[in-house]
Amino acid sequence: MEGDEEYNDGNRAFLQALLARGTMTLQEAKPVLASILTVQEGEPVDSVQINQELFDSYLSKAQEALSSLDYDIKNIVHQVTKKRVWAIVNTTSDAMTQLATIHSAEEIAFVKRVLDAMFDKYNSSRLEAMFLDSMQFHKCCRAPAAAPAPEATEDDGEENHPQQSQQLRGLKSSEAETMMQNMVEEGWFERSAEGCYSLSPRALMELRSWLVDTYNDPDAEPGEWQRIKFCKACKDIVTVGQRCAERDCNVRLHDHCAEAFWRTKRDKNCPECTTPWDGKHFVGERAVTETEAYRRSKGHRGSRAGRSSGLMEQIMAPDEEEEEEEGERKSRSNLKTSNSTLDYFQVKPRDVLVLERFPAAYFDTAERQAGIISRHPYWYSCHTYDWDILDEKRPAFCIRRLPPPGPYHSSLLG
User: Fold this and answer.
1) In degrees, to the nearest 5, what angle opens at C-alpha 181 toward C-alphas 175 and 187?
2) Which of 136, 257, 338, 395 could make an S-S bridge to 132, C-beta 3.0–4.6 Å?
3) Span 314-365, pLDDT tens digits
């Protein structure tokens, strides 16, 4: 059996089925294609006769038909079921496509807060959860407080000052539950047996670039921990899988990629930091459910869903160290230094401060001359009597008053 060379009603029916489902696996496509061929050939066609080659031919025709509409058909292996999934994804993002949604502005804002919680709040170097349970997504219902509007002037028109009714108010608890259910039914989120919500394969394909642009730091140093990471083997995003035991290493593997990946290696050490890979450090839901605290709680008779949800929140909640590290990242992200070593900031009249970010090449020189460079896992700290540390958790950035404190400063600048 071969698909017709011309795009016909059978191809249209297949594309319509794919659009209606959002995603499709080979097993799901078999009865669809069998029904289409039964009508076309006028005799029964069993789904067992449908193979990958025939499926690929229909996918190729559908892909050609969609290309002029800025859509594409991509595939990815499901991180849990390990089945390959095909989906139609949007290849462009502009004002028109962003408006082309059946959801309200309130609902879209809620989903954005959910994604922020998944990939920002509950995604740290200590614990990469990237999912929410029912208790946690309910915390995303309320919209953040709006910034105060600028005072109106006589020259300002009404269009420059939208009414207060246009401010986002957030969703009610019942509305949030309905929205999460709708997102699951539409194929954007998935709900696990534990009642946890995470991004679906379709969403990971559609939002791949957006996730990287939104949650990764473009100015991060090579090897610095990032929120969105990719499988070392297949290069797709990892939200469920295995991670290196070294907390700040970025190497991740999907479960379905790990076995084949390690067969090609001489030893089972991380290819980046050489830390032994034990396969017991996880990304996703198991990062929580495989902890000793969670297993101990689930082992108690009479454990309830509410209790499990509260325990998840306790395990996933950022600790003080993580909050400090997050503050460092945001400070570095917000603090844009120029390509030169010095940036000048006029703090107040006659009080000029200089912000210095030491290039790596200068550390050895500074250490030899000062002899008091303290090493931090991520940064080098310069502690001298005439230097003030701008932020002890970010000591590569130092602040001092002009004029320069003698030869020590000039040696750093070369």
Assistant:
1) 135
2) 136
3) 778 766 555 555 555 555 444 433 333 223 333 233 333 333 444 444 334 4
Report field, pTM of the whole predicted structure over 0.90:
no
What pLDDT, in 10s, does the model give residues 105-145?
A: 899 999 999 999 999 999 999 999 999 999 999 999 998 87
Residue type, 108: I
Cβ atoms within 10 A of the Cβ of 225, count?
17
Q: Are 253 and 233 in contact (CB under 8 A)?
A: yes
Cα–Cα distance, 110 to 118 (Å, whole number): 12
Helix (H) or strand (E) holding 56: helix 52-67
d(CA 358, CA 223): 18
Q: ∠ CA 286-289-293 to the nearest 5 degrees? A: 140
Domain ranges of the chain: 9-97, 105-145+167-322, 342-412
The more confident residue out of 243 and 332 is 243
Q: Check if the beta carbon of residue 366 is closer than 8 Å to that of residue 413.
A: no
Kindly report the CATH class assigned to 105-145+167-322.
mainly alpha
Identify the DSSP state of 233.
T
Q: Which residues contact 231 (CB under 8 A, 6 or more apart)?
A: 237, 238, 241, 252, 253, 254, 257
**Assigned CATH class of 9-97:** alpha beta
